[in-house]
Every structure is written in C-alpha cells, then in structure tokens.
C-alpha cells in the first residue's frame, strides 16, 4: 500500500475548531503527509503498472482540491493528475474504489459508469446531499441507491463506490460501508 496526493495548493484552509476559513495557505501533499505520518508520494509519480488497484477517499478535500465539485458541481474540472490516474487504472482494467463524494470523479471522467453516493432522496434527513445523485445522472451516469453500509460494483468499469459520510450515520455504519468497498476492490484486483 502506498499513499499519494497531488502537489498543489489547497483551494482554501478551514479552521475546524472554529468552523471558519483561515487566512493561510497550505499544500495538499504536505497536509496529506501530516495525516499519513510522512509516508506519501506526489500523485504525479504514481504508475498504475506498479499497483493492483487504486482507492480514493472522500471529503471536502476531494470536492475542493481533487476537483472543483464544491464550487462548480457537475460542471467541475478534475485535477490533471487525478484524471490521468483514473484513466490509467481504467485503461489497464484495474479496479478503482471511491467513497463519500469521490464517486463524482468517476462520473465526470467516465460517462456512462455506475456509482453510488447513497440515496437520491433525503431519507429521514440522513442524506442531506441527495441532489448529488441527480447531478451524477445529468452527467450521463447511473446513480445506484445504496445504504451507508453497502457498496456498489460497476463490473463493466471495475469501479466500486460507497457513500460513507454522504450519509449522516453512526461511524460504525460508515466503517462497514467503506469496508465493503475495499473488499469488493480486492476481489476485482
């Protein structure tokens, strides 16, 4: 297992203690290295030929830095190294795992693919970002409704997705869904 991140400036920095923007600049690779305890490489150096699969985590970092979904929605652009990584694994017929908001990367890069970000309706207030499913459909992809503890496998494209924090759920349920996504990626590898 190796961890990669793009060597780019973050779109913005948030003070999570206060829940407000911070007046500072940070680098995505440097911040990712902090979280990964330093064991990380620049995404530009990733070679699909050296790996059996790739998994992208989710979160606002994806929506703000790996693409511009947080600002532009379905009209977003995808970071060039993220795009080329996805294309390389797809072309090599190697599995791609995506969770939380990161399935929008596949929806943007692979028209016609199948992904899930949970439900397409805000069921019991658990899916506050349910409109993301509609945006995915508008991109020409098929959104598959799944519960937080499930994943969806697009066998034709070898793309495995789960909603994770797109659902307001207990952490153990989110953990279970991410676990199923990882297991399905490993089965395809």
TrEMBL record:
Official protein name in the record: GAL3A protein
Originating species: Loxia leucoptera
